[in-house]
Amino acid sequence: MTTDPTPSPVTFRTARRDDLARVVELIADDAIAARRTGELGDEHHAAFAAIDADPNNELVVADVGGEVVGVMQLTFVPGISRRGATRLLVEAVRVDSRLRGQGIGRAMMAWAHERGRERGASLAQLTSDKAREDAHRFYRSLGYAQSHEGFKLPL
Amino acid sequence: MTTDPTPSPVTFRTARRDDLARVVELIADDAIAARRTGELGDEHHAAFAAIDADPNNELVVADVGGEVVGVMQLTFVPGISRRGATRLLVEAVRVDSRLRGQGIGRAMMAWAHERGRERGASLAQLTSDKAREDAHRFYRSLGYAQSHEGFKLPL
């Protein structure tokens, strides 16, 4: 009478420095991102310190049974547009590729939106590489409007 | 023997509180943005204070002959992706509609990129409503890759 084991719940917390190697691994585990993320190095440590020191940035990890299975960065941006709306920017959203399709990404985004509301943001925004069509479907399924073009320029 | 007067040079500075009414006017002077920006109110003052207090946000105005003719918001976002790159986010870029086509927008963006480099950003990014095709042409002409889809969700 055994059934599938109940999956462990996903919990969320701010990333610690000892999560950084795993976070870099998650961010790089992707055909599009691998070439530009690299292996854990000094520049990632410096970036972690900058995020950690900035009250408007939160690097959040998703934990299942003690293992980090996802990561995302939340940035709160005050602005004049839209009647002085604070925006929640969501960047670097990644779920362990072995665990996709289990609702972890959906749980992460729900948590991000709740955190955004808690901090007074009235708009969430994100961009996604034009090649990531699965991600686009996913964001549309969460109610996001695919209303903008995203531009990038190396400085 | 008179010729066209030489146009006054564009100068840039951080917005002051007494620029706010003009900034809101510029942001709202646009068919797409007017309905969602509104008239100057308390919420804009609160947003101005939040931007002013955050070292990673700069509200910048373009001044020609003592008149504010453009505005943009620069946000510096530390991140783990792309080898720990700091990103320069450019939002709410507006030029006085009577003065378009005179290179003011181009001067603003050049200034933004220089400021980004000064602060260690290695990537500039922005999004633009899919309806703003002139803006898309403009950003592509500056070298931006139109590589991403932009998503927004009210919270």
Automatic annotation (TrEMBL), chains A, B:
Keywords: Acyltransferase, Transferase. It comes from the Bacteria. The keyword Ribonucleoprotein does not apply. Residues 10-155 form the N-acetyltransferase domain. This is Aminoalkylphosphonic acid N-acetyltransferase.
